[in-house]
Amino acid sequence: MTPPLSPKVAVVGCGYWGSNHARTFSELGALYAVSDRHSERAEALAAMHGARAMAFEDVLADPAIDGVVLALPPQYHADQAIAALEAGKHVLVEKPIALSVADARRVVEAAQKAGLVAMTGHVLRFHPAFEALEAMIAAGDLGAVRYIHSHRVGLGKFHAENDALWDIAPHDLSLILALTGEKPISVRGVGSAMLNRLSDFAHLHLQFSSGVRSHVFASRLNPYRERRLTVIGSKAMAVFDDVADWNQKLAVYHHKLWEDDNGWQSEMVDPSYIELPDGMPLTQECAHFLDCIRTGAHPRTPVADGLAVIEILSEGTVRHD
Q: pTM higher than 0.85, yes or no?
């Protein structure tokens, strides 16, 4: 089958994030339809972008639709992703792609069998600051990576099915796995539930065979908002701060460390800020999905990456029964 020159997509799920997808694909000239179990919501969003409002079954049956974007409550992602792949549609499924390792593996297996583009919505992989950070590490600017830690905290959102770990940590786990290029050999989780049986605070501690260690702190019950990924290298340290102003989102610290007769000494220096190109991560991600459909290229964030994240989440989840 010849890939389409101008792929058309349907966005399934017209909530907050699905609406963002619909707007973005509309701006890219690729939005064909939207779908939601609340038909009035789909009709309103379709009218806003000049698209069609369709039932999910009709989306799967329509040969004009090349790709399906799933932005649903995560308990529905696996079954609908598999249905779309079996219908011959390329798929971009939001994180997490499932709520169990078994279901995530089903998605990966369906993608392999279908031979179609199957991509996970790890949107921060497409952030210009993270792309610049990846390039710096690849070039050896930070030296050997020793430690990576992330803090992603704020107030809300509270979900009935998934806790702070499953809702928030996939962002940072996808970044950490991309930077290390390997799966952890050890995962330890610590969680605390304040409001109900689901963790509102969660720590993950990871160890990799290369010697890199990492920790992730996620909270949905925090008085301030923080979105920060820190990489400690043998030559320098870098911080990707997604709350900072654009010209300060990626900072590099060349602090001085040395050992003398009095032990280890240090000298702090001001950070240098890396100039970043303009670009919205969601736009970059959606454009990449369309490009993969057009060219048959392997996506940067395949569903196998989503599975790797879910394996870590499952191993690090603390149950509060």
A: yes
